[in-house]
């Protein structure tokens, strides 16, 4: 018809790398890394969903006996009760097995509320609950035995379904999809911590950070005179959730001794740089001075991130830059002190698990702070280096966790 408006429906492109699809920009689809990401200093996440971390095993009827342990996890909630919030707050971290208090009640309530209408979050929560209840019941058992448990199998099945749902949401994310993705990141982080797979946990962490950065979860400085406001209001903050998880005191009991390749048993210790070396006689020695200082930096980082979230002008943002620089300097000083403490251990041994956790937490704080307020091209190059470093620490932590669980089984007989 003459004079009529012709509306052409845009076809959604579902090819391209994950990074370009999240940013909603055209990807040149160069392999293995697209040129668009490389030229802008970003990390190209490739062409497969980063959330597909394992293949779900098919269900079997081997355990269909109606035993108490095979009782299905409640898939939905009719209403959210204080007990539900309390349990999820505990399930977020394995530290709560040692009666450590977490401060994630707000995140727990938000996830539970979202699960009433979001099946992806519901599957993720069902997975976390099943795997945590299995761990609470079975404790540290060999993986081959754990995988024969119906609760464990159900947890992996639900995890797989949540991963698939999230990959679908990310193909064309709107405001609801972004919130769902970030809440799932929080739950997946907890699931992989529960499984002791810190390498996979870190992939979820970095993906959550990239989503927050791509969709401007917080304001940031474009120039010294221009502040870009948050693009989406009230997106879940994966970094704040993560800091809350790790700021809680770690109470893993480290082995009182390690064995070198020759079979010689060696005492291990860790000291604060301002103290004399003392052989560790307590398996719960956690380098309290080092831990206390890192906790202070983490608490200050949470306060700093809160200020960034509420920025309204470039002038106020500029006033925060010295605080960011001071926090980064504190982190570097802490790292140097830790290395000094490590060199004073005589004789050297395998690093304590508690120290590995502190290294991991330290690197998380550094990555979080580097990305705050900044959008310069140099940032992406620096973040890529620090993200790779975080992934390496996570891989080491996964191996240390395996050794810890093996020691725990031997100790418990």
From TrEMBL:
Start-end of Polar residues biased regions: 264-277
CDD domains membership: GAL4
Keywords assigned by UniProt, alphabetized: DNA-binding, Metal-binding, Nucleus, Transcription, Transcription regulation, Zinc
Domain of life assignment: Eukaryota
Database matches in Pfam families: Zn_clus
Annotated spans, Disordered: 264-285
Coiled coil (residue ranges): none
Protein name as annotated: Zn(2)-C6 fungal-type domain-containing protein
Species this chain originates from: Massariosphaeria phaeospora
């Amino acid at each position: 018809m003459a004079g009529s408006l012709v509306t052409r429906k845009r076809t959604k492109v579902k090819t391209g790398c994950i990074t370009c699809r999240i940013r909603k920009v055209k990807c040149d689809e160069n392999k293995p890394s697209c040129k668009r990401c490389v030229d802008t200093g970003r990390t190209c996440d490739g062409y497969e969903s980063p959330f597909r971390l394992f293949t779900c095993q098919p269900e079997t009827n081997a355990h269909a006996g109606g035993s108490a342990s095979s009782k299905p996890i409640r898939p939905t909630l009719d209403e959210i009760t204080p007990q539900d919030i309390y349990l999820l707050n505990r399930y977020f971290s394995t530290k709560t097995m040692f009666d450590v208090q977490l401060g994630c009640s707000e995140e727990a309530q938000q996830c539970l509320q979202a699960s009433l209408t979001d099946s992806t979050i519901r599957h993720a929560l069902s997975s976390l609950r099943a795997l945590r209840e299995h761990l609470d019941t079975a404790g540290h058992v060999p993986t081959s035995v754990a995988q024969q448990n119906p609760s464990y199998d159900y947890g992996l099945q639900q995890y797989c379904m949540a991963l698939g749902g999230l990959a679908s949401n990310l193909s064309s994310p709107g405001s609801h999809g972004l919130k769902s993705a970030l809440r799932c990141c929080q739950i997946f982080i907890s699931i992989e911590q529960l499984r002791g797979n810190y390498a996979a946990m870190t992939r979820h962490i970095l993906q959550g950070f990239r989503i927050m950065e791509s969709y401007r979860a917080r304001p940031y400085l474009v120039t010294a005179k221009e502040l870009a406001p948050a693009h989406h209001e009230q997106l879940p903050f994966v970094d704040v959730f993560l800091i809350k998880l790790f700021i809680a005191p770690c109470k893993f009991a480290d082995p009182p001794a390690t064995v070198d390749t020759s079979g010689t048993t060696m005492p291990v210790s860790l000291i604060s740089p301002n103290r004399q070396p003392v052989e560790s006689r307590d398996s719960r020695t956690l380098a309290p001075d080092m831990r206390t200082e890192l906790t202070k930096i983490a608490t200050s980082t949470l306060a700093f991130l809160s200020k960034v979230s509420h920025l309204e002008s470039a002038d106020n943002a500029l006033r925060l830059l010295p605080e960011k620089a001071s926090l980064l300097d504190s982190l570097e000083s802490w790292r140097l002190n830790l290395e000094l403490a490590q060199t004073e251990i005589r004789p050297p041994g395998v690093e304590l698990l508690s120290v590995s956790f502190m290294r991991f937490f330290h690197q998380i704080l550094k990555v979080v702070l580097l990305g705050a307020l900044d959008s310069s091209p140099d940032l992406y190059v620096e973040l890529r280096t620090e993200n790779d470093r975080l992934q390496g620490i996570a891989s080491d932590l996964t191996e240390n966790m395996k050794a810890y669980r093996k020691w725990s089984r031997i100790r418990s007989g």
